[in-house]
Amino acid sequence: MRAACCEATVLRHEVIADDIRLLRVLWPDRDHAPHAGQFFTLRAWGADEAPFLSRPISVHKWDAETQTVEFLYAVVGEGTRKLTALMPGDSFQLTGPMGNGFDTADLLSRYKKIAVVGGGIGTAPMYQVARELAAAGCKPDVFFGFRDKPYCMEEYREIANLVKVSTDTGAVGFHGFVTQLYDPADYDVVLVCGPTVMMRNAARLCAEKGTPCFVSMEKKMACGIGACLGCTCETRSGEGKSVCKNGPVFDATEVFF
After folding, report:
1. What residue ranges in 82-157 does DSSP mark as E strands?
2. pLDDT single digits (tens) 25-40
3. Fewest CB atoms less than 10 Å from the CB: which of 9, 106, 181, 182?
4. Which of 70, 58, 65 has the alpha carbon at shortest distance from 98?
């Protein structure tokens, strides 16, 4: 399915935590509905204004009934700082959905016990993953790691079988790494998104236990459709693959971190 470019209307924009925002928008194109793991590019400034590139942000939640998309994002640079100025009622350019996300139907046809693992803002796309799994009758076990204080965890109460949290500071939950919260051997598959070092460790532990693992990777993107090759990642086959087009979700055994 080809991505669409539309003027989306802001419905809500909240401060969730330090430098974390939740943006809810009305997505008018019913023919282009996103699924877990996909992303949109957001642009709330003119074509001749800096930054030159739109900002790719993963889908946190998609509601087909209300035609709304939610984006949970971190304010880390000029582009995301400009996004923070969006107010309810404002319109801006939204293009998507893009990429190959988590194929939950395929996952459910092959696996029964599923772990969803996230770190920091990498937890953002995992909410839609958990929602789709739960809607199909498979509530996953959720393991999330944060630097200090968790955010948006109350959303998982009804859609997860188990929720455990770790923090680097020990302020909340387990004091340590999120990969210490679970044993991959207890699961049929592990789905991961977060900092590169966390995903690398999660993939390694899964490989040691023989548990399939799928990771949602992040790279700086330009076109978002695989044409510019700016987000190419190295694969074990020797073939470079675009994170935006071939991913962002990959079999962890396929890619180098």
Report:
1. 91-98, 114-119, 141-146
2. 999 998 999 999 999 9
3. 106
4. 58
